[in-house]
From TrEMBL:
Belongs to the small leucine-rich proteoglycan (SLRP) family. SLRP class II subfamily. Residues 1-19 form the signal peptide. It holds the Pfam family LRR_8. Gene3D superfamilies: Ribonuclease Inhibitor. The keyword Glycoprotein applies. This is Keratocan. The gene is KERA. It is found in: Secreted, Extracellular space, Extracellular matrix.
């Protein structure tokens, strides 16, 4: 009788599933295989919700799952048995569990459709390896990662986002050898690690580089020459003084947003006309000379309305030792400036 009820229930739910393109037999198999600890919404049958359940082990994942929610549990290992039938997985959220590097095993590499893997707030000591070539977003923030295995990203031609913030990476872990293969990388977050140098081996596709909260005190000459798409650069809370980098290192037309708050700068660095946002608050700047920091000649700004007009819209200078008022030539130069905090 209970069985009949189950069956009836599945049949009645099938009507709701019309929105998702899934054959009848697959839908039935999917709903029947739903683990008792999880929720498998019939109108969204590709998703399986097993989050916030105090789970210590992976439940058996149904075969047609694309989206798997396992965040906020106590899972220590990824059992290949539990994932055996789930060959179509595209998206796994394992944030806030207790997974160790030993616990990952090599089960990930067999997930040939996996595009998004989230493992923030676990106990990993190394970037999991091997990873599937289908991966697009990899989030590993706030683990204990100190190692990136050599060549782990080789073949990952689709990986565009790599989040490694809040780990224990030192300079020798982030190298040409360890980052090799990230040919489509757009965003890399290495904030709150233990770097004292700029990372080496970033691919030319890199657009967003986040390095806040490290111990970086130098930027080598021409560092950004190999990074022609660099647009968003965050170096807040480091140890950069004005003598730690060549004067023109940030004079790159691709850079739109430059954040250097909470460093030890004594001067405003040279910027390009293209820069739109500049954060220099909480440094040791005592004086701003508008004509010196203007990317073009201040006189030329007056009578030109073309692309050489400095694009700066937002400027923060608070927490320095600058006395108001804002020098008039700053306003003359940056005529698009909408907001200045001093
Ligand atoms: C995998 O699918 C087979 C066939 O439906 C089933 O017998 C088996 O229990 C499933 N295994 C897991 C781990 O879900
Ligand atoms: C900044 O870069 C531009 C373009 O490469 C160059 O023309 C300009 O002279 C540079 N500015 C300074 C002050 O070095
Ligand atoms: C500001 O910089 C310009 C160009 O470097 C220089 O000629 C001028 O004397 C400076 N102004 C002050 C008040 O220091
Ligand atoms: C832009 O304005 C500057 C300064 O007036 C001038 O030298 C330059 O030729 C102009 N460029 C274009 C493309 O109009």
């Amino acid at each position: 009788m209970a069985r009949l009820q189950n069956l009836l229930c599945i049949v009645c739910l099938l009507g709701l599933a019309a929105t998702q393109d899934m054959p009848y037999e697959e839908l039935a198999a999917q709903i029947q295989a739903c683990p008792k600890e999880c929720r498998c919404p019939p109108n969204f049958p590709r998703a399986v919700y097993c989050d916030n359940k105090g789970l210590k082990n992976l439940p058996k994942i149904p075969p047609y799952t694309w989206y798997l929610y396992l965040q906020n549990n106590l899972i220590e290992a990824l059992s290949s048995n539990a994932l055996q039938n789930a060959t179509q997985l595209r998206w796994i959220n394992l944030n806030r569990n207790k997974i160790t590097s030993e616990g990952v095993g090599d089960v990930l590499s067999s997930m040939t459709n996996l595009a998004h893997l989230y493992m923030d707030d676990n106990l990993l000591s190394s970037v999991p390896s091997p990873l599937p070539a289908s991966l697009e977003h990899l989030r590993l923030s706030r683990n204990r990662i100190s190692k990136i295995p050599a060549g782990v990203f080789v073949g990952l031609e689709k990986l565009s986002l790599l989040d490694l913030q809040g780990n224990k990476l030192m300079d020798d872990a982030v190298t040409e050898v360890s980052l090799k293969g990230l040919n489509s990388l757009v965003q890399i977050n290495l904030a709150k690690n233990q770097l004292s140098k700029m990372p080496l081996g970033l691919p030319p596709s890199t657009t967003q580089l986040y390095l806040d909260g490290n111990n970086i005190d130098k930027i080598p000459a021409g560092y950004f020459k190999g990074l022609p798409k660099m647009a968003f650069l965050r170096l807040n809370n480091n140890k950069l003084g004005s003598s730690g980098f060549p004067k023109d290192v940030f004079n790159r037309s691709s850079i739109l947003d430059l954040q250097l708050s909470y460093n030890q700068l004594t001067e405003v660095p040279l910027i390009s006309s293209g820069l739109e946002h500049l954060h220099l608050d909480h440094n040791k700047i005592t004086y701003v000379n508008g004509s010196k920091i203007c990317p073009v000649s201040v006189d030329a700004v007056d009578d030109s309305l073309n692309e050489s007009v400095p694009q700066l819209r937002y400027l923060r200078l608070d927490g320095n030792e600058i006395n108001p008022p804002i020098p008039r030539d700053v306003i003359t130069c940056f005529r698009f400036l909408r907001s200045i905090v001093i």
